[in-house]
Every structure is written in C-alpha cells, then in structure tokens.
Amino acid sequence: MKVIRIAGVKKEPTTVPSLFTGMVSTQTIIDTKLSKKFSISQVNFGRGVRNKFHKHSTEQILIVTEGKGIVATENEEITVGVGDVIHIPAGEKHWHGAAKGSTFSHLYVIPPNSKMTQLED
C-alpha cells in the first residue's frame, strides 16, 4: 500500500500548453510505475482558464477538488464544484476548466493507453 498526499506532489507546468487558454499546472498522482490499469493526475487551472475542445480514446473521470468549474460538450455547459464526479464517455467532444473569476482543480482518472485528440486551435 502507498499513501500519496496531493499537497506534497510537485506542481509541474502542463506538457501540452497548446491545449489550454492560460496557465495550468499538473500533479502526477498515480503513473505507470504504480499502476498498469489507470493513471491519476490533478490539473490546476488559473482563474477562468479552460482547455480547448478535445476527445479521448477511452473513458475519462474527473473529480473536482477545488474551486468552481465548467464541463462542456457542443450541446451543454454544466457548472461543477468540489465533490462532483464527471464521467466523460470515450470519443465525446468536450472541454473543462475554471468558471469566470474562479480557480479550479480536478483529478482525472484515465487508462494510461488513452489517446487525446485536440479538436480546437
């Protein structure tokens, strides 16, 4: 067993800056060194920052840990907050990020073999 305290995990600049509209950091919580089945990272969005439309080849789960955010598809935008859990089906075009005037953090759970495709410039 291993206990990981998110507050103790170093924040790193995102590895895909073109996907975001502003400053974002990530914290790798579980990677392939610990699990072959899934990876978990926390994404920390600056005030009003979001990612651009994208899709994943696998399902994705988001767990809101801080602030107020928006999760959107082409047809709807839903405001989310701490404790909310979002399930995004494989292949669904979506974006997520901080609500206007708020910061936002979420954990994401995804299989390590998932491929992300950015759909917006």
Summarize the structure in words.
0% of the residues lie in helices and 45% in strands. The protein is built from no helices and ten strands. The strands form two sheets. Strands 1, 2, 3, 5, 6, 7, 8 and 9 form an eight-stranded antiparallel sheet that branches. Strands 4-10 form a two-stranded antiparallel ribbon. A hairpin with an 8-residue loop joins strand 2 and strand 3. The chain is globular, with a radius of gyration of 14 Å. The relative contact order is 0.27.
CATH class: Mainly Beta
What is the CATH superfamily label? Jelly Rolls
Mean pLDDT: 97
The count of helical stretches stands at 0
Annotation keywords:
single chain, 121 residues, mainly beta, Jelly Rolls
Care to give the gist of this entry?
With 121 residues, this protein is mainly beta. It has one domain (11-114): Sandwich (Jelly Rolls).
Helix-strand layout with pairing:
Layout: E1 12-13, E2 24-30, E3 39-45, E4 54-56, E5 60-72, E6 77-81, E7 85-88, E8 95-98, E9 104-110, E10 116-118
Antiparallel strand pairs: 1-2, 2-3, 3-9, 4-10, 5-6, 5-7, 5-8, 5-9
